[in-house]
Design a protein that fits this description.
Blueprint lengths: L1 H17 E3 L3 E5 L11 H4 L1 E3 L8 E3 L26 E5 L2 E9 L17 E4 L14 E3 L3 E13 L10 E7 L6 E2 L3 E4 L6 E5 L5 H10 L5 E6 L13 E16 L10 E4 L2 E4 L4 E5 L4 E5 L1 E3 L4 E7 L4 E6 L1
Antiparallel strand pairs: 1-15, 2-15, 3-4, 5-6, 6-7, 6-8, 7-15, 8-14, 9-13, 9-15, 10-12, 10-14, 11-22, 16-17, 17-20, 18-19, 18-21, 21-22
């Protein structure tokens, strides 16, 4: 009997060394407390000949000179990532191709109560279906038993019937290697700020994320639409003033010991199925290849369909 108890205790100790979960808590991402990169816009700024007099003026901090305004030339194109080039990890959250503005306010009239001071700005994704794909997102740490996500946002430009400010919330079961096909799409409601809490009561997509998190840790990310999306849903800048999760924070993970074994492996430009066959498509729906291993022609976002018909999104850099 003593030997049996010893075996049980040792087994439990091994389990908890694989996945360490803290008590359910509020996991907060506060842009006001982020440290801007020295080469980012907030510190290094830009030189602009705003008066077109041949003399450049310096602008940085909260001054609104980071926008890539059309210059009227036929060769102009949206090119914001030159000023949205901050990538890293702070407060346990990862961010890619963003702009950190820790002391800057929202534009226009505030909501009540106002959104938090400071923001990190996402730019619209670019060329997602090409070898020049540039995406912009904020990714949460791994969490379990997800209860809610509160998001405070505002917009860089005004909102009207011809221009909304969309963003998407996606989730991954393998720590960001692949992203589930189901995602939540929503909008910033006013330029002066929006505040919303997702808890599964309205959006079935978030309820799916909650359910998945009870089986194995998940990570979530906030990402913009592509600039090429037609009409009012075209990708825009999105300012994130606060992101708060109510969940169990997973502080250390041995991926091989979780309840969700890896279904796909991605290396260089090759996607390999672990225990299945796959079909790979680009975002235009064109079939790229099938089998247990598919090599894609260039970087970009691809849709991978497994033999059980489930689909996942993969970003190939």
């Amino acid at each position: 009997m003593k030997s049996t108890y010893t075996h049980i205790i040792i087994s439990l100790m091994l389990l908890f060394t694989c996945v360490s979960i803290m008590a359910q808590q509020e996991i907060i991402f506060s842009p006001a407390d982020l440290t801007p990169h020295p080469d980012g816009y907030y510190i290094s700024g830009v030189w602009v000949d705003e008066n077109e007099d041949g003399v450049d003026e310096f602008h940085n901090g909260c001054e609104d000179y980071y926008e890539d305004e059309p210059d009227g030339s036929p060769n102009w194109f949206y090119n914001p990532h030159e000023n949205h080039a901050e990538t890293g990890e702070q407060q346990g959250f990862k961010y890619l191709n963003c702009m950190i503005m820790p002391t800057c306010e929202h534009k226009n009239e505030p909501i009540e109560p106002p959104v938090a001071l400071g923001y990190i700005q996402l730019h619209a994704c670019l060329w997602s279906n090409t070898d020049s794909a540039i995406i912009s997102y904020i990714q949460t740490p791994p969490v379990a038993n997800l209860v809610s996500l509160t998001l405070e946002t505002s917009s860089d430009v005004s909102i009207n019937p011809d221009r909304s400010i969309p963003y998407n919330i996606e989730y991954s079961k393998d720590y960001g290697t692949t992203w589930e096909y189901t995602y939540l799409s929503d909008h910033v409601l006013t330029q002066g700020g929006s505040r919303i809490t997702y808890d599964g009561s309205i959006y079935y997509q978030f309820e799916e994320m909650m359910d998945a998190s009870t089986e194995s840790p998940v990570v979530l990310r906030i990402i913009t639409n592509d600039r090429a999306v037609a009409g009012s849903e075209q990708g825009q800048f999105v300012k994130v003033h606060l992101l708060k999760l109510t969940a169990d924070l997973v502080t250390s993970v041995n991926k091989r010991k979780t309840n969700q074994p890896a279904l796909l492996q991605v290396r260089d430009h090759t996607i390999t199925a672990v225990k299945s066959t796959i079909k790979v498509y680009n975002l235009c729906g064109q079939h790229i290849g099938s089998g247990t291993m598919v090599t894609v022609p260039h970087s970009g976002i691809y849709i991978v369909r497994l033999a059980d018909m489930t689909m996942h999104k993969v970003f190939i850099r």
